[in-house]
Amino acid sequence: MIVEPRADHVVWLDGAFVPWREATMHVTDHHYGVGVFEGVRAYAVEGGAAVFRLQDHTARLFRSAHIIRIPIPEKYGRDLLNDVQLEVLRLNGLTNAYIRPFVFFGGMLGISPGTQDLSVHVAVMALEWNRPSAYGGAGSISTGISLKSASFVRNHAGSILSKAKANANYMGGILAREEARACGADDAIILDHDGFVTETSGANVFAVSRGRIYTPPLESVLEGITRETVIALAAERGWPVVERRLARDELYVADEVFLTGTAVEVTPVREIDGRSIGSGARGPVTEKLQRLYAAHVRGDGEHRSEWLSRA
Ligand code: PMP
Questions:
Q1: Candidates 204, 228, 265: which one to mutate for ligand 1, based on the most atoms within 8 Å of Cβ?
Q2: Can you list the pairs that 180-183 forms with residues at least 24 positions away whose Cβ atoms lie under 8 Å?
Q3: Same domain assignment for residues 94 and 188
Q4: Are both 196 and 69 inside the same structural domain?
Q5: Options 148, 163, 165, 288, the catalytic residue
Q6: Taking the CA of residue 60 as centre, how many other CA atoms within 13 Å lie in the half-sphere pointing to its CB?
Q7: For residue 60, is pLDDT > 70?
Q8: Domain count for the chain
Q9: How many angstroms separate the alpha carbon of residue 63 from the centre of ligand 1?
C-alpha cells in the first residue's frame, strides 16, 4: 500500500530536493484545475529498481503541457526530468514505487494562465507501492473487479482534450468513480455522448470477444502507455487488437473484459452493471497478458530492456 513517507523523505520541487514537509504550495496558487501530471511506476528488479517506460511518461507530460499551454521552463527539460525521477527513487531508497511528476501554475487569483503573474512550478514525488493491486487485495488480480456505467457523460472530445493528462480532466472520472463505489462497484465505466465506452476513472478498457481483442479508439480516451504496451504484447503473440467504438452491451456479452493502466496494470473485470462477464472470473487472454506485462515491468524473463530505466 502507499505508506506515509519517513521523516527524511524528499521531494523535488522547482529544481531542488527538499524535505517532504517543505514541499508545499501557496494558498494563492492557481487553483482552477489547470495543471498536468504523470503517474509512473518503478519496480524492484534484480540488483535494484527500474522505472517502466520512463521516457514515454515524460514525453506525455510535455505533450499534456503543450495541449493545456503550460510553458514548462526550458531549464527543466525532458532529460533532467527523467534523471530527477530516478534520483528521487535513489534518495528515498525506493524500489517498488509510484512516481508523480506534476506541473502547475503559481500564485495570483486571476483566472487567465496567460497573465505574467503566473509562474510555472514543476515537482516530482515518489511513494512506496507495495499493494498487490490498485484495487486493494490480490483478489482483484485473480478474480477481477466490478464496474458500473456512470450516470455522468464523458465530456465532448473537444472539451476534455483527452490526450492531455490534465488535472481538470479528472473531475468527471472522480464523480463517476465515487458514484460507482456508492453503488457497491469498484470503479466506473464512462460512456460518451453517443453511449459508447470510453475508459474508467483511471484506466483503458479492453474486451475479448469470439477470439478477437477490442479497445475503444484513441479519439476520446487517454493515450495509455499500458494500453500501447498491451497492444504491442498482444500483437507479438499474433493477437492483433482492433481499435473501434464499443457499445456497453458489447462488454456485457464479451468473453473477457480487462483494464490497463500504470496503476491497475492488467486488471480483469468480472462484472459490469450487475451482469457477470464471460465465466465471471479472469479469462485466459487476460491472464496471459497480465503475466507478460508483469514480466516486462520487472525485467523478469522475456522483456524489452529499452522499456526499463535503472534507478
Ligand atoms: N485513462 C485515464 C483517465 C487514466 O488516468 C489513466 C492512467 N494514467 C489511463 C487511462 C491509463 O494510462 P497509462 O496506461 O498511461 O497509465
A1: 204
A2: 180/147, 180/148, 180/150, 183/148
A3: no
A4: no
A5: 165
A6: 22
A7: yes
A8: 2
A9: 14
Rounded CA gap, 15 and 102, in Å? 13
Q: What confidence tens digit (pLDDT) does each residue in 129-152 have?
A: 998 899 988 889 999 999 999 999
Domain of residue 77: give its range.
10-128
Q: Whose CA is closest to atom 12 on ligand 1? A: 224
User: Which atom of ligand 1 is closest in space to residue 169's alpha carbon?
Assistant: 3
* Strand duo 16-19 + 48-52: pairing: unpaired
Cell numbers of 177, please?
468513480
Contacts of 11 (CB under 8 A, 6+ apart): 17, 18, 19, 20, 23, 88, 123, 124, 125
Quick: pLDDT tens for 68-127: 999 999 999 999 999 999 999 999 999 999 999 999 999 877 777 666 667 899 999 999
The verdict on 122 and 151 lying in the same domain is: no
Q: Are residues 148 and 294 in the same domain?
A: yes
- Looking at the structure, tell me whether residues 157 and 289 fall in a common domain: yes
pLDDT tens-digit series, residues 265-311:
999 999 999 999 999 999 999 999 999 999 999 999 888 999 999 99
